[in-house]
Amino acid sequence: MNKQLFRLSLLSILLLAALAGCQPKTVTPITSLINKVWKANTVKEADLLVFTLGATNNIKPGYTNFRLDLSRPDTVRLKDVDGRLTVGTWTISTDNKRLILANLNPKPTNTGGVVEYYILNEPDGVSLRLERTAESRKTGNTIDQYALVPE
Fold first, then answer.
1. Number of domains within the chain
2. Is residue 5 in a domain?
3. Domain containing residue 88: CATH number
4. Which of 54, 63, 95, 112 is packed most tightly, with the most Cβ within 10 A?
5. Stated pTM of the model
6. Which pLDDT belongs to residue 23?
């Protein structure tokens, strides 16, 4: 009986030590990886590549001036392909899958002041891939994909 109690106590101690050693990995909040000014590296409107940074034959050279400024907490400044500046707030969905721009002023056409993007890859601080969740009037009612890099 004494031997069984010793084994049970030893097993319990080993199990507790193993559990105590299993600490969850610290996850960097997604906001700390994207809170910077982003510029377009490549842009696809529907499935058509219309812009590549540094290329001389871009279909839409206006994306050279595209900026998505997330450098200030909760404040976004978006300069789109047409050069128009829109200011509002930004948040990340609770599942970290969408970037939500809200209270945009002036309101982009047919948005109600809200533009959302799917986050296509896990942000790493050096690139950000986004896709509009809805069509953009500015691009001929297409769903657009952006591969962004820090400014």
1. 1
2. no
3. 2.40.128.280
4. 63
5. 0.80
6. 67
